[in-house]
Amino acid sequence: MKIITISPIGFGANTYILTADNKNAVVIDPSQPRIKEALLQRGLKAAHVLLTHCHFDHVSGIAALQADGAEVVCSAEEAKLVGTEADAFDLAGIPRVEYTVDKTLKDGETVNLSGIEIKTILTPGHTAGCACYLVKTDDGEVLFTGDTLFAGSIGRTDLPTGSLKTLRQSLKKLAALTVDYPVYPGHEESTTLFTEKKRNPFLRGV
Predict the structure, then answer these.
(1) Which domain holds residue 99?
(2) Total domain count, the chain
(3) Of 62, 127, 70, which Cα lies nearest the Cα of 97?
(4) Is there a contact between 122 and 104 (Cβ–Cβ < 8 Å)?
């Protein structure tokens, strides 16, 4: 399986393109409309869009992919927030991107999307339905954390449905994992879980 990282231009989130067959892709958090072109340049088609959460800076490229047939997937809890003030489009002062959720996932559920095995870890706090995803690769599993966990920090909790108390409980869930997974966050550089356990003040000692 291949992981392609598309860093944002200007304000936006990291987008991750996963492909097992070099044809079909799972796109995690398509943050900008240019993600469609990035796929085309690589000869890939988005079969699935997987959302960690519905904030505007993680979904602004989603409409074109869904129009081309991509199935949109997220946690059942986050699906309830799509199209509401919780997506922060209104706070950002930009037009809301319209899309629908085709499939929802439960905490602990494992699915196969485009030949890729993905386990959902529900981690509310940044939003009420945030999720991390544990993805099986040829070399082991990797963890996509959205805005739950960053290198050295965590996501903000002052936006609609955010809760620092809840996020702390989610961080305890991640800290309980016993494998040093590579971590691909929603913003900035990648890291590893054990690095964050040792150095991240929000994860250390929870």
Answers:
(1) 2-199
(2) 1
(3) 62
(4) no
Q: Provide the 10 A C-beta neighbour count for residue 131.
A: 29
Tell whether 77 is covered by a domain: yes
Question: Buried b vs exposed e over 79-108: b needs ≥16 C-beta within 10 Å?
Answer: bbbbbeebbbbeeeeeebbebebeebbeee
Report d(CA 203, CA 195) in Å as an integer.
10
In a domain, 204, yes or no: no
The predicted-structure confidence for 105-163, as pLDDT tens digits, reads as follows 999 999 999 999 999 999 999 999 999 999 999 999 999 999 999 999 999 999 999 99
Q: Are 16 and 28 in contact (CB under 8 A)?
A: yes
The two structure tokens encoding residue 80? 């309830």
The reply to whether 171 falls in a domain is yes
CATH code at position 179: 3.60.15.10
Q: Residue 206: inside a domain, yes or no?
A: no
Percent of the chain's residues with pLDDT above 70: 100
